[in-house]
Structures are given as structure tokens and as C-alpha cells.
């Protein structure tokens, strides 16, 4: 088993389907670093946080702490071989808590840089597996903005080896939900 960073972002605690799926496949494995972004919320990107993330002098103590936390999150990401992201769909997007993680690690000169040919990601050689859970069916429709957002955001920081594991129709009756869970668990097991 590769060293793995697991990012959970469900707000549903013990009822979370994405957490259940991830735990079912990864629990007890070696080399796992877990971050539950809903249990331990990160700062929301605002003017103070954006200033903190640019670094430099004249940061308040709070901003210095935000910058240190961002450094820690980036070091955590750099240290692993693969990342498993739990990405439930809430109101057609990823949870705010997961967006906050990306906002904390997207840093010019640290995780991406601009060149004359455009932006280049600075995080390399990692596999990313996204486990995305949904009540309905959206995978092959324009409503699936989660896949394009995550593919773009991960690619922007250099992570282009991304696989999506879908568990859809979870609120469409017991049978389709169970079938979706089983299929997703098998896919995740094969990928990690
Ligand atoms: C606040 C909220 C918003 C949701 N929005 C959507 C949605 O836009 N589309 C959808 O198919 N399901 C939606 N659902 C259903 C969730 O995607 C479903 O419960 C899934 O299991 C969430 O993953 P989780 O259990 O890991 O949190 C929503 C659920 C909640 C609680």
C-alpha cells in the first residue's frame, strides 16, 4: 500500500456514504494520513487569508498561523504517493470544506507557477482517486461540475493522474444505492 493522504469532506458524520466507502477499503491499512475537513474546518478564503497566503512581512499573528497551516497542508500533500479524496455532491458542488482545502494549498510559487506558456503545477508524481457520492444521477450530464472542477484544480497544481470513483443514486431507493456502493467499493479497492 502506497503512502496515502485521505481527505474526507462529508458533513454527514457517521452517516456519510463517502466516509463509509473509504473506510471500508482503507481502514487498517498502513501509511495513511487522514484529514477530516468537516471535523476540523479550515479558514475560508477572504481578504485576510489571501494576504496571509501571499506571505511576506507585516502579517498579523493570525495570518502567520494561517500561512503555517497552509505550509503544513502542502507538506502533507507532498509527502505522500497518492491521495484519496472523499467528494460528496452538495448542491451540485463539492463541500465548502473541500473547496477550503484547495484554497489553502493553491499558492503561487509553492504549488503552481506562471510561465510564459501559462501556469505550471509544482506538485508532481501522485495518483489521485476521487470518491464522489451523490443522491441522484449526474455523471454523464452537465450537472457533473464536480469532475471538471476537481480535474482543473488538481491539474493546476500538477496532479494530472486522477481517477473518479462514482457512487450515485444513493437517495433513489435501496437497491440502486446498494449496487452503487458495491460497485464503487470494488473500483476503489482496485485503484488504491
Ligand atoms: C445539503 C445537501 C445537499 C445535497 N445536494 C445534492 C445534489 O445537489 N445532488 C445530488 O445528487 N445529491 C445531493 N445530496 C445528496 C448527497 O449527495 C448524498 O447524501 C451523498 O451520500 C453525500 O455524500 P456523503 O454521504 O459522503 O456526505 C445532498 C445532500 C445534502 C445533505
Question: What descriptors fit this protein?
Answer:
192 residues; alpha/beta; Rossmann fold; five-stranded parallel β-sheet; two-stranded antiparallel sheet; 40% helix; 19% strand; globular; binds flavin mononucleotide
Short description:
The chain has 192 residues and is of the alpha/beta class. The chain has helices at 17-26, 47-54, 61-78, 96-105, 145-156, 174-191; strands spanning 4-8, 32-36, 82-86, 112-115, 118-121, 127-133, 161-167.
Sequence-ordered SSE layout with sheet pairings:
Elements lengths: L3 E5 L8 H10 L5 E5 L10 H8 L6 H18 L3 E5 L9 H10 L6 E4 L2 E4 L5 E7 L11 H12 L4 E7 L6 H18 L1
Parallel strand pairs: 1-2, 1-3, 3-6, 6-7
Antiparallel strand pairs: 4-5
Helix pairs in contact: 1-6, 2-3
Main pleated-sheet profile = 5 strands, parallel
Listed once per kind, the bound small molecules are: flavin mononucleotide
The number of helical elements comes to 6
Across the major sheet, the strand order is 2-1-3-6-7
Q: Gyration radius, to the nearest Å?
A: 17 Å
CATH top level label: Alpha Beta
Question: What CATH architecture do you see?
Answer: 3-Layer(aba) Sandwich
Number of domains: 1
The end-to-end distance, rounded to whole angstroms, is 7 Å
Under CATH, the topology is which? Rossmann fold
Name the CATH homologous superfamily.
Flavodoxin domain
**Share of helical residues:** 25-40%
The counted number of beta strands is 7
Give the DSSP E fraction (strand runs of 2 or more residues): 15-25%
Average of per-residue pLDDT values: 97
Which geometry do the CA atoms define? globular
List low-confidence stretches. none
Order of helices and strands: EHEHHEHEEEHEH
Query: By helix and strand content, what is the structural category?
Result: alpha/beta
Amino acid at each position: 500500500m502506497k503512502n496515502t493522504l485521505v481527505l474526507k469532506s462529508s458533513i454527514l458524520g457517521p452517516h456519510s456514504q463517502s466516509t463509509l466507502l473509504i473506510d471500508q477499503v482503507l481502514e487498517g491499512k498502513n501509511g495513511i494520513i487522514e484529514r477530516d475537513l468537516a471535523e476540523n474546518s479550515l479558514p475560508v478564503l477572504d481578504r485576510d487569508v489571501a494576504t496571509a497566503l501571499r506571505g511576506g512581512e507585516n502579517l498579523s499573528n493570525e495570518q502567520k498561523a494561517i500561512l503555517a497551516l497552509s505550509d503544513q497542508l502542502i507538506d502533507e500533500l507532498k509527502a505522500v504517493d497518492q491521495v484519496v479524496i472523499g467528494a460528496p455532491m452538495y448542491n451540485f458542488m463539492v463541500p465548502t470544506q473541500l473547496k477550503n482545502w484547495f484554497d489553502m494549498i493553491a499558492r503561487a510559487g509553492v504549488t503552481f507557477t506562471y510561465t510564459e506558456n501559462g501556469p505550471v503545477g509544482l506538485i508532481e508524481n501522485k495518483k489521485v482517486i476521487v470518491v464522489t457520492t451523490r443522491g441522484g444521477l449526474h455523471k454523464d450530464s452537465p450537472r457533473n461540475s464536480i469532475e471538471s472542477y476537481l480535474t482543473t484544480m488538481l491539474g493546476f497544481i500538477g496532479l494530472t493522474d486522477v481517477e473518479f470513483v462514482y457512487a450515485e443514486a444513493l437517495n433513489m431507493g435501496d437497491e440502486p444505492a446498494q449496487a452503487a456502493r458495491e460497485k464503487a467499493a470494488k473500483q476503489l479497492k482496485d485503484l488504491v
